[in-house]
Amino acid sequence: MIIFAGVDGTSAETGTAELPGDYQRSFHQSFVNRLQRNELVDFDDTWYLRGPYTSGLDTAERARACFNWVKASFKHNGAKAVFLGGYSRGAAAVIEVAKWLKVEENIPVECLVLFDAVDRTNTLGDPYFRNTRIVDTVRKVIHPRRNQISTHSRLTFGSCGGTLEDPSKTVEFYKYFFATHGGLGGVPWTKAAHPTTGLPLPTIWEFGEPFPTYVTPARDQAGAMDVWSWTKPHVAYAFHQCKERLAREVETRPHPGFEIPERTMPGGGVGGHVPERGHDGREKRHYIVKSGDWLSKIAEKYYGDMMKYIPLHKANIGVIGPDANKIEPNQKLWIPYPDELRKFK
């Protein structure tokens, strides 16, 4: 059972799950919200909490609520792995959750998905630097960040989530994007105006900042799409890796008093090939990658269309990883039948 828990970004807007308001409307398409709605991968259970209010003083309280839900899921609901996601101060919150899970419960985190993490309150982490290190029980970190220099977005904000406790134990993927802090969380600006007078401006001027950004609303929305496009394959790959690892653990777990009988061939010989079959009874097709292969070449071979490499990559993302251009010799790829391939568009 793989679960997801997320804490979203900061806003002064009101609203809760029980009493929807402006916050729910503004953050409906936020990336943390989309992850918990299983728009990308099918988590077995999800939990979501709106982000802190503007003061940030409730950040620790929200982090503790997240921690308690994850702890209860492992103790009472059969959870075996957890993905944590957060945006802005919510990302700082889940960094703390990962630390508490290690220290208090000895629960590892499969993947930490951080959207432009910032910690601007003394209620979490180091009271001076406010930059808690990501603990070594986090297996993977995915962290898209704003390019503060090129965008001039949130110049008064620092960033966090950039330091690993042990780089040899945690895999980190991060990338800088030309988008505002809002765009990094999936809530890009829709118009540019002076924060006090409301007069229109060519570029976005964020509330509380001394200068406008270099980002137009159109570019911010395009930047947000870039962030989601980059994040999706990384999260999907981490999810598939997690599922495969959990499956291997089940297969290798000893069962006292039970022995798997040997398969016998006609005539009594031990062994024999038992073809792997799908739900429809058809034998599953596979292809072993050879030196000089590339995915579009394989797609051309089986489907007569080189562009079918895109759904073929999605069908095998657990083997190939997030980059469709990086296939390696001896990888075993599943070749779906044409009607099966349509599921991966």
Helix content: 25-40%
Number of helices: 11
Low-confidence stretches: 258-273
3D shape:
globular
- Strands in their spatial order, largest beta sheet: 2-1-3-4-5-6
For the record, the count of structural domains works out to 2
Q: Helix/strand-derived class?
A: alpha/beta
Task: Examine the coordinates and then state which fold CATH places here, giving the name of the CATH topology of the largest domain.
Answer: Rossmann fold
What is the strand content? 5-15%
Radius of gyration: 23 Å
N-to-C order of helices and strands: EHHEHEHEEHEHHEHHHEH
Instruction: Using the coordinates above, name the CATH class of the largest domain.
Output: Alpha Beta
How is the biggest beta sheet arranged?
6 strands, parallel
**For the terminal residues, how far apart are their CA atoms?**
26 Å
Average pLDDT rating: 86
Per DSSP E runs of 2 or more residues, the count of β-strands stands at 8
